[in-house]
Amino acid sequence: MKETVPFDRGIARLTLPPEAAAAFAELSQSLAARSLIVWGEHCSECAYPRCYSSCAFYAPRGDLHCRRFEDGIETVADTPEGVSLTRIRFRKWGKLEGKGPASLVAAEAARKQERRDALVGAGLDKAPVPFAVTRTLAWRWNERKKATAARPSATAADAFVVETYAPGATHTFTLTFLAEDGAGMFQCAFQAGPAYGRLVVPVARIAAQVDLSRPFLVQVEPVGEAQGREIVFGLVDFASFAGEIPASVDPAVRPPVAAAGHAPAKVVVWDLDETLWSGTLAESGVEGLTLRPEAVAAIRALDERGVLQSIASKNDHAEAMTALEAFGLADFFLHPQVAWTPKSDAMARIAKALDLGLDSFVFIDDQPFERGEVEAAHPTVRTLPHTAVAGLPAHPWFNLPVTTESRRRRGMYQAEARRGAAYEDAGTDYAAFLAGCSIVLDAAPLAPADAERVYELSQRTNQLNFTGAKLGRDEVEALVKGSPNLACLTLRVADRFGDYGLVGFAVLDLAKGELAQFFMSCRVQRKRVEHAFFALAADRLKASGHAVFQVAFRRTERNKAAALMLADLGFAEPAGGEGAWTRSLAEPYPDASVVSLARPKARPKAAARAA
Asked: Per-residue pLDDT averaged across 337-345, rounded?
């Protein structure tokens, strides 16, 4: 319930996204009871009353108190049935503040009280009395509302809820409960963004820090500059629910429809405390932690699908790794970053170590502040709250097949780490190091057993995808069946450190003398595998009577590395940048000898025909 301010009854007319309107209505319908805290606009730098004459930002509202919101707390018109929404456009130093204790009343009774309050406010504005009388009556009415809101009730609150929608941008706020006698404080951060958001804080968490039966202040305050922030608030009160307590909804997470259009995620970075396990390592020690079974199930499911995983946690590194070892999970995480530094820095270090773009990363953390900090530094990183962990295996971002290659992906990256360590220890030049790695390329005809892996590789590969193609399963199946003029080749690579698996796919059009499709995992980039393959392909094209090697290439936003590869291999870019890149088949590939070619193996007749 908002504070009654004379002659200050703004109405906001705006159109909510259908998803947000539905979410506000859904929560309203689930309410059994709620509090009626009287909310008003306040200043985070208040020095009342001296500031009224000395502060350059003082602006009077209807009762001559300082206006910290552009048009006060505006009522949103045309809301869904039973839903009460308000809009606030913050000015400098503005914050929303109320007082407790706050008891609960039945949800329908609360709606009636809000309607009666609106009628009283309108009546005060129209009353033919002097301004001083109107202001006094408004003050008395507000005091009466506060006293009514604090009356004891038999209904206990389940949680404190903050519902938000912020058109156009994402903003970070703090929710603070402060005992008026200074005996305790609870604070947490949350975000409001261009999708429906809901913060749900169990009452027990707040009551552990603040005595809610005694006078307290409750504040909703922007983090950083408040000026210009426009937020629509739904319920901002204590609440009890007829059924299950709803979970928080993070407005930074895109709605499911949008999420389905995202490229599959390649990396999940986990927070530890209250995300991977329940409890706080620094306070409880390993023995005080409880592993979340849904997190373990998600970790194993994602690992099966080839999703790489790491850690970004603010903890002591040695203690965290000891805990992960004790839980038998340490081996699942690549390049874990455990330090008291910003998590955005940790994300950057993980991306560099894996040599993967941050746009393929998902970050999971129970703290809205940490998710917001990562998003601010790395806008392409997708984030999820800890409440989404149980649903990870079914999430569209992880709709990936389980294949032999996907099960081996983590081991492949661990082998790559050993390669890097060996190179550092060798103290020699890179070419000499590669020569000693015993790299072997096996280029074999596409077989039915490899169709799913080729489909997966097509969907995942962006940087070294010459045409940007995302082959469908039906297209791969057609290539398996074969064509007289097409050589469809899978590329497998291994070295003395381990097996990279099936890392590339190529389609050679022997009639046109063209490489029609080529995509390869960046795991083997810069290891001269491409040199060995192109030398092999050149031999096939020369045997078919061609003199020029053509490569079909289409620029995308993400395949600049592919263009650099072609340039490094000596191909000439077409005039204007469109069309096939070309290279004389008479020119050798000097670095091709760094990589050995596997001896041809006996293959099924169907595969032989496809070659």
From this structure: 91
Q: Kindly tell me the burial class for residue 357, based on how many C-beta atoms sit within 10 Å of its own C-beta (0-12, 13-18, 19 or more).
A: middle
Residue-range definition of the domain harbouring residue 234 = 11-241
Instruction: Work out how many domains the chain is built from and give that number.
Output: 3
| H or E element, residue 126 | helix 107-126
CA dist 270 → 291, 292, 313, 473 (Å): 13, 13, 8, 32
Length of the chain: 611
Q: Are 435 and 304 contained in the same domain?
A: no
* Torsion sign, CA atoms 363, 249, 188, 369: positive
The DSSP bridge partners found for residue 40 are 97
Residues 597 and 572 grouped into a single domain: yes
Please report, rounded to a whole number, the percentage of residues in the chain having pLDDT higher than 70. 92
Q: What is the mean pLDDT of residues 556-560?
A: 87
| Domain final position from 206, 241, 276 | 241
User: Quick one: 315 and 205 in the same domain?
Assistant: no
- Please identify which residue in the block is written with the tokens 């039915």: 448
Q: Do 32 and 134 belong together in one domain?
A: yes
pLDDT digits (tens, 9 = 90+) for 100-144: 999 999 999 999 998 898 888 888 888 888 888 888 888 898 899
Q: Are 31 and 166 found together in one domain?
A: yes
Express each pLDDT in 185-209 by its tens digit: 888 888 898 889 999 999 999 998 8
32 burial level (CB within 10 Å; 0-12, 13-18, 19+): middle
CA–CA distances in Å: residue 412 to residues 184, 308, 406, 493, 515? 51, 11, 10, 11, 28
Instruction: Single out the residue of 393, 397, 417, 266 nearest to residue 331, CA to CA.
Output: 417
At residue 260, does pLDDT exceed 70? Answer: no
